[in-house]
Amino acid sequence: MKIKLPRKVLMIINNLQLHGYEAYAVGGCVRDSILARRPEDWDITTSARPEEIKKLFRRTVDTGIEHGTVTVLLGKDSYEVTTYRIDGAYEDSRHPKEVRFTNRLEEDLRRRDFTINAMAYNDEIRLVDVFGGMQDLNHHLIRCVGEPKERFGEDALRILRAVRFSAQLNFPIEPKTAEAVRELAPTLKNISAERIQTELVKLLVSPHPERIQDAYELGITKVILPEWDAMVGVEQNTPHHKYDVAQHTLRAMKNIKRDKILRLTMLFHDMGKPAVRTTDENGRDHFKGHALVSEEIARKVMRRLKFDNDTVKKVTRLVCYHDYRMEATPKNVRRAMNRIGVELFPYYLAVRMADAKAQSPYRRREKIENIIAVRELYQEALIKDECVTLRQLAVSGRDLMELGMRPGRELGSMLSELLEYVIDDPQRNTKENLCTYVKEKLGL
Q: Of 32, 314, 340, 384, which has the fewest beta carbons less than 10 angstroms from its beta carbon?
């Protein structure tokens, strides 16, 4: 098998080989190349020791030199070059206590997580596949290298990575590997929130976010996202729905584009439903106030998983407004743009569309037509540059102070009142008109 290596990767491998060392592209980049996918990055493994690697390249960074990794800088690009190694005992379900360097490629490949990630390649030897990675690619399987319990016992994050790769590649997890996942899932509690967040997001933005259901069935969500388990089996006996809350959520995630903010919003949008569900005398379920409860759950989970503030702010706002519906009139849309935010409004529309498509056929066409009409009015408001924010008002706080108002709460309230006045009718947004309005209010 021939893999076309990038020019700079070839340069690094050739330089190491010229000086008597072995060197290969290794891991995910080899897997993705075989699958005709574009690798995100290229890792290189070599028999050269870190100090020897540093001598051969002009610009290097000691990124993980104690574990044998040196980053080689070529122009604006960087490549991790790691010495063949054998990992010592793992003490924290994540990191080896020590590593030993080795001259044998096979020993280095043996310590890797899954067979499809344990292949190496260079143009001279071609593909090195000691553990059946090619066979598992052909059979579409996620399988551990060697004994699954040993691999997961070394690094518990591999448990979540198994499901993440399954979602990215749409490969099922091989039965023995799945059995080990189920048995050792509780050890995920030893993994940092940041690491879990990274893997969860990769799973959610994959082509198959519905594989989070596999994580549930294997006992993973019970440890890292128990809020998911609470949704499973919660029926929605209402004409608007035909799936339970978890199944509806899976379909809503599938219906929206592979964007971190959007997929997270769909994950959380109905998480408040189990807590607020009531059933009337006719057997019909109601979920009043579920958006606000879902917003609180989303905030709590994202804080727990150490998401950045910007992501938390955007996702919680979208979750809060995901069920906000309106008659499609210019005034209603301007008011919604003000409440939700101009930049977030396209996300809000996408969320509503994904939600509607994951519901029952009952009044679906009506819902979708409403969303399309709202979208058109939103675009019209943008084209006309209609005022929906304080920044767009024809007057500022300084203008109001020149009319005699003092800085403080009263001035802020007046600006908000002016904004409401203008949202009702964009033609009112002139300095002269707004100053007249203020003077009349103040009795000047």
A: 384
